[in-house]
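Hi Y.,

Following your request, here is the sequence exactly as I used it, all 101 residues.
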Amino acid sequence: MELIWTRLANITYREVFENLEWRWTKKEMRDFRDLTNELLEKVKNGRVTHPYAHKSLGIRKGIVHKNVSLFYKEDKENNKIYLITFFNNRMNPKTLKRLLK
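Below is the corresponding structure, written out as tokens. Let me know if you'd prefer a different format.
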């Protein structure tokens, strides 16, 4: 399947990564990048199926790191996976609801 990065996914990934710059070491940042890439490969190749975060919208939630989740939607008819947003799990859940709509 083809991974499609939405504009929001690009923005939120950069925000999470920039936040890490302030708090973590370069090694931890590389580890986070590697964790993200591993998760994306598993999703892309269908090696993992995550639970629904919002079943009626078909949005699934994968854990990148204990503090960061990835929300995505599969379009099996067109063989695409849309990355919707990366979310810092310590943020207000109301923010997530707005992002998923």
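The chain is about 45% helix and 30% strand.

Thanks again,
Q.
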